[in-house]
Structures are given as C-alpha cells and as structure tokens.
Prior knowledge:
Elements: E1 14-21, E2 24-31, E3 53-61, H1 67-76, E4 88-96, E5 99-107, H2 114-127, E6 130-136, H3 140-159, E7 167-172, H4 184-194, E8 197-200, H5 208-229, H6 234-252
Parallel strand pairs: 3-5, 3-6, 6-7, 7-8
Antiparallel strand pairs: 1-2, 4-5
Helix pairs in contact: 2-3
Amino acid sequence: MRSERLGExxxxxxxxxxFVTSSQMVLRHSILKPTSTEFRNCSDMSGTAALxxxxxxxxxxxxxxxxxxxxxxxxxxxxxxxxxxxESIYSHNVIVDGRDISFNIWDCPYxxxxxxxxxxxxxxxxxxxxFILVYSICDRAxxxxxxxxxxxxxxxxxxxxxxxxxxxxxxxxxxxxxxxxVSSEEGRLLALSTDCEFYExxxxxxxxxxxxxxxxxxxxxxxxxxxxxxxxxxxxxVKSMSAVFARKRTDSV
Length: 253
Ligand SMILES: Nc1nc2c(ncn2[C@@H]2O[C@H](COP(=O)(O)OP(=O)(O)OP(=O)(O)O)[C@@H](O)[C@H]2O)c(=O)[nH]1
C-alpha cells in the first residue's frame, strides 16, 4: 500500500522523517521546505553553516532490489529486513569533510505505467541533483531496467538543458554472490559507457559500502556544479581574443 502519491508537485511535500526506536521503525511527517536543485553555499553565514550544502537525491530501480534497504541503511546504519511499501522523501544531515550536508532522499517505487512514468520522471529529474540507480546482482531483469532508466534520465536532463547528470549505479545484494546473474564487469562496463560511478554493495551486510555510494554521488554532484559554474576555458578565451585581433587587423587594412 502506498501511503502517499507524490505526483502533485514536488515542493512543499509531506516528508517523512525516519526515527528508529529499538526494533521498530516509525515514520514522522513534516513539511519539507521548498528546495532548489542548486547547491546552496550560504556565504553570508559563519562556521559550518557557511558551508551548508543541500543535495536532492532520487533512488530508482526495479521492485525488490533493495532501494529502501539501502536508503534506510544510510539513514540509520541498520538493516531491518522488511520495509513497508512507502514512497518517501527522507531528510538527513551529515558532515562530510567539515561541510554540513543536507540530503533529501526520494525513495521511488518502480512503475511500468508509461504515461505516469513520463510525467513523474520529468518532475523527479527536475528536482534531483543526483541519482542512485539500484539493481540486484541476482536479478538480470533489474539490470536491464537500470540501462533504460539511465537513458530516460539523460534524455530528460538534456531536454531540460542540463549537461552533466550525476548518476551512481549500485549492484546490491552482494552477499548473495552464489545466486549472482550479473557480473561485476557488466556493472562496471555499463557505468563506464554511460559516464556513471559504479559500486557493488550489500545493504544487508555493511554500512560502509552504502556510505561510499552516497559520498561518491556527492562528489559527482559537486563536480557537476563546479563545471556548470566554470568560466570559459583558456581555449575559448584565446579563440575570442584572436577573433577580436583578426577583426582589428582587417579593419585597419
Ligand atoms: N540478501 C539481501 N537481501 C536484501 C538486501 N537488500 C535488500 N534485501 C531484501 O530485499 C527485499 C526488498 O528490499 P527493499 O529494500 O524493500 O527493496 P525495494 O527496492 O525498496 O522494493 P520496492 O519497495 O518493492 O520497490 C527485502 O526482503 C530485503 O530484506 C541485501 O543487500 N542482501
């Protein structure tokens, strides 16, 4: 049962915050402030607040690949085995390299309804700074779905005029290697050919691997923000100066 539909506008949503009390997981809702898709560097503040960075992350993949397990592992360091089928955006603050990072993580269900997919995909893509695409190493079909989702995200971002899309591909359930149907090489090759980062993890077994996934994505988001803000490269400066001088020379002839 889906507790909420998130299709009606992304901003100002009801946002469940996750709390874990002994063995029971409780979801508490609060309103998420409207968030921009930009990193926010609050330069008018001091201390860690001055370095506060916000990152919107969308977690996608086929059914039962471990999207929620991965997200909950990152949020709570725990693996609880079974998760409700709830579409949620979680808010989570961490400090990375002295920077205060605020992750908003949208754990999305898989949908095959093409009309719904197109509409919601555009909203998610607009909202997201980066994507985590999860497949199960024991489920070849889930790997094919990742391939399609990468194309879909890149197509939508291109349409929206965004050059670089930070994407991390995650092969989950590494602990079930005896049931593996997708090799590590295949995952790595897909990542190489689509300019994505690649990790194989077990959300069930370790927190560390999951942490690397989120940190890896954060690096990519930072890079994409930096390259988007970069002034024209030296080549283009030389090119435009030569054009100016060439024009002057022809003017004076
Ligand atoms: N062995 C193993 N099982 C895992 C791992 N991660 C998740 N699972 C199990 O896989 C099942 C599905 O996990 P979920 O996190 O609910 O997967 P999901 O992709 O969010 O599923 P949907 O909400 O249906 O889309 C659960 O039974 C988890 O316990 C893992 O790393 N190893």
